[in-house]
Structure to design on (254 residues):
């Protein structure tokens, strides 16, 4: 059984624009699946549908065989700890009124009774926060700062620490590094790759950046105007059989 299964989903916004058309794919346990496509093709909409932030009009989204689409917040709650998100703008993932330590303990307080920790071992909240900060290579003394007292890269690392704090099986990464400078981008992506191995997680890695997707993922999907037009193992990226649109994207990176 696949960790996440997306079957024939369609999404039209109130404006009448059909943004997702017959999207089908699955993600396996411990897999990193890349999704590329130009701005406006529907990548973030797909992420929001998987996270239950946007309803879908047709189709099905299942996590380990259980349908998640269009469920109420109450029914989705047991699954939220398993599917986390790291989005493009690091500030949007953190409450500006909470200190780093409060942001880090918040998901754990919401889901604590449902989490059986496999990778963290601690005897106090303080120890748990220290382990999370260490995991994302941040100094422990950042725990008492507010988000506005952090750099963009540090904020994104706190967001990552928060996302992994519930030991999710899947993280949706929607352009997680694109607001950062080139050096910070590389180090955030390297950290994400290391954490995936260490914590046995799967990623749906959404990006404009073909080389980052190639670096991070085992399989790659290409989206054009709301449809998945190509899907392949990364070793087949330069194969002759690639969709003409994939070839066009590749040529932009050469
Ligand atoms: N809440 C919304 N209401 C109406 N239309 C929306 C909404 N969110 C996105 N759209 C439209 O849906 C289309 C797809 O947007 P989406 O953000 O999913 O694309 P994207 O591929 O993630 O783009 P980018 O790479 O620039 O983030 C766009 O035409 C956008 O204007």
């Amino acid at each position: 059984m696949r960790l996440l299964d997306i079957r024939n989903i369609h999404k039209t916004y109130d404006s009448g624009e059909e943004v997702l058309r017959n999207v089908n794919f699955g993600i396996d346990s411990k897999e990193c699946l890349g999704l590329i496509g130009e701005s406006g093709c529907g990548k973030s909409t797909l992420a929001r549908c998987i996270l239950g932030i946007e309803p879908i009009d047709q189709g099905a989204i299942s996590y380990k065989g259980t349908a998640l689409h269009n469920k109420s917040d109450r029914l989705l709650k047991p699954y939220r700890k398993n599917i986390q998100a790291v989005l493009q703008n690091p500030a949007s993932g953190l409450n500006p009124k909470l200190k780093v330590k409060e942001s880090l303990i918040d998901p754990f307080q919401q889901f604590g009774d449902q989490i059986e920790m496999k990778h963290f071992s601690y005897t106090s909240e303080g120890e748990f926060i220290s382990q999370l900060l260490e995991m994302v290579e941040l100094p422990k003394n950042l725990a008492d700062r507010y988000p506005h007292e952090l750099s963009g890269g540090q904020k994104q690392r706190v967001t990552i620490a928060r996302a992994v704090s519930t030991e999710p099986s899947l993280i949706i990464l929607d352009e997680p590094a694109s607001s950062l400078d080139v050096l910070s981008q590389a180090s955030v992506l390297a950290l994400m790759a290391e954490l995936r191995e260490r914590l046995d997680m799967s990623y749906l890695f959404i990006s404009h950046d073909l080389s980052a997707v190639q670096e991070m993922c085992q399989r790659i999907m290409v989206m054009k105007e709301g449809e998945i037009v190509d899907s392949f193992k990364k070793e087949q990226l330069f194969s002759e059989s690639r969709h003409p649109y994939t070839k066009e994207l590749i040529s932009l990176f050469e």
About this structure: DSSP finds eight helices and ten strands in the chain. The first strand starts at residue 4 and ends at 12. The chain has one domain: 2-252. The mean pLDDT is 90.
